[in-house]
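User: Hi! Is it possible to get a structure for several chains at once, not just one? Here's what I have:
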Amino acid sequence: MAEMRREYILNAVIVAALFAVPLWALMAGEPFIITLATRVALLALAAVGLNIALGLGGMVSFGHALYFGIGGYAAGILAHHAFSGTPVAFGIPGTNQMLVIWAVAMGLSGLVALAVGALSLRTSGIFFIMITLAFAQMGFFFTLSWPAYGGEDGLPIFVRNQFPGVNTMLPWELFLLSFAVLLAALGLFAVLRAARFGAALMAIRQNPDRAAAVGISPFGVKLTAFVISGMLTGLAGAMMADLTRFTSPAMMAWTMSGELIVIILLGGVGRLCGPVVGAAILVGFETLFGGWTEHWQLWLGLVLLGAVLFARGGVIGLLAGREGHG
Amino acid sequence: MDSAVLELAGLRKSFGALKATDDVSLTLRPGEIHALIGPNGAGKTTLMAQISGGLRPDAGVIRFRGQDVTGLSVAQRARLGLGRSFQISSLIPEYSARRNVMLALQAREGHPYRFLWPVRRDRGLTEPARAILDRVGLGPRASVPAGELAHGERRLLEIAMALALEPACFLLDEPMAGMGTEGVGRLIAFLRELKAQAPILLVEHDMDAVFALADRVSVLVYGRIIASGTVAEIRANPEVRRAYLGDEETTA
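Assistant: Yes, the chains can be modeled jointly so their relative placement is included. Here is the combined structure:
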């Protein structure tokens, strides 16, 4: 019980810090730091998505970059057509409205996750990892050889897409929007985890035979979680494309899938705010060490090694102790 | 006779040349404890797996409450009312004893696709879970993760989860395994009470427990039922005596 209370406090501190740092940067006139914080929020959002599949459901997807990329291309392609005034296909126009783009990004990611999940969730362990990776690589090579949308050069978003009441060109306002969406995703994660669905999903992760023996069919529960997971990561991809004003095959690269797993391992698998901490560490390393050595990932690797060897619950596990399921 | 809760007819299952289940037929009637005994390797576990749905028989029919369930999955059979405990405790290790029982309760109530209301504030789950844990004597240990319970406590939690399903029949796979004499004594008293709620198909190695509890006993040897009858009949059966006492001679 005490450990649970400690995790509540820790979560509050983490979320407050993610808000306070860019607020300080706004006062101090450091827009670059605000953009970094937005990047943390969006990577965290993508990882919250993966955390539903990996953390709660034990499905180690090594292909979540696929959904991240689908979201990114949804934003890029719709914005591209809105900018040029040409239809996407069959007379459907493009759009520069984020709400529409998000809906399309989540819808497409969800559909693809449904197909990938239906095919891959019959396997487990290394086979599951490899099948999810294979699907993501198919997406990667498809975008790479898709000249209509830039191929390997990627696709720029010339004017950031719009959200009602928000000036998305201002770093602070874009941060607030991203932060709000992250909070909503964290809320969704917490609610799902506490509900019957989460109870079934986590039980299946720990002992699928027992879940079946009480009458819970593992496949449907896992597939549902996998689809929700892909949709959230897809949403994060769409928003990330708008942050960087660029979408490219790199969003679907296997290294991106790896980064999302690293974020979760660093922060704490299955922990509510694990993705936020992990994303902050990743972006911190990228920024601090990326400045004076291109081998910053070596240092990140050492930290990851430390986390896996000495802190199985990641940073959250280290600070808040083991997770309780009273 | 015709109102058997569970009925196996002509079940066969082979692994290569090994006939693990060889034309097994048996019934479980309301209100009885039907014990299934047999030496190691007789095929008890294989048979239980076919009844619960983990293994598909090569031939034969399993009828549960009059319905042919031979083609149904483990989860589907559980939802129909087949309550099972595992030979080796199979629990959700990170969940407390209470949440293990709550999982079974929520499964009985319906599908798991409820995304909003938190289970720990769901009185429809927490209250009955408490009552069931009290009933098996695990009340004071309700908050302990299943993975940290003592062996005997885990056996009780297995039973509690089966109870929570309010099944139409219990399938108990060696519930006494590894329990101390005191635990066995208490469990015998408990099962005697339990059979009024739903009949029990009991696989058990502890012969004293079987003879104390069973209304009928079936003896499985090399995948075949060689004898079936009351405790007195089984005790007096020369074939059974040979199977058990002469085990070493025949395998030599």
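Chain B has two domains: 1-81+170-252, 89-166. The CA atoms of residues 49 and 55 of chain B lie 5 Å apart.

User: Great, thank you!
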